[in-house]
Design brief:
It is a single chain. This protein has about 90 residues and is mainly alpha-helical. The chain has 2 domains: about 50 residues; about 35 residues, no CATH class. The chain contains 3 helices and 2 strands; from the N terminus they run ααββα. Strands 1-2 form a two-stranded antiparallel sheet. The mean pLDDT is about 90.
Length: about 90
């Protein structure tokens, strides 16, 4: 039964070669894109998991308001480190 399905598919692909090439290339491109996105997401979710105290790592964000526009950045000024050390002993 399956053999006849494969024969039928093969004959259809041979009859419509341009259509078959477009479909196979589209499938390959879609799978490659999906795999690249998956690898990127897994890498982002595993960031800093190798540290023994990974559950104690925090990120300090800077919320900047300038001219009515609010922006959030994952960067902070260097003097903030000294201020955090002096005001928060657990740091």
């Amino acid at each position: 039964m399956n053999k006849s399905y494969f024969k039928l598919a093969w004959r259809s692909l041979q009859k419509n070669k341009a259509f078959a090439i477009i479909n196979v290339l589209g499938l390959a491109l879609g799978l490659a894109t999906c795999l690249l996105i998956m690898v990127y997401v897994i890498d982002e979710l595993n960031y800093d998991r190798t540290s023994p105290n990974a559950n104690r790592i925090y990120r300090v964000n800077a919320d900047i308001k300038f001219g009515g526009n609010a922006s959030s950045y994952a960067i902070t000024p260097p003097p903030l480190a000294a201020a955090l050390l002096s005001n928060y002993p657990e740091v």
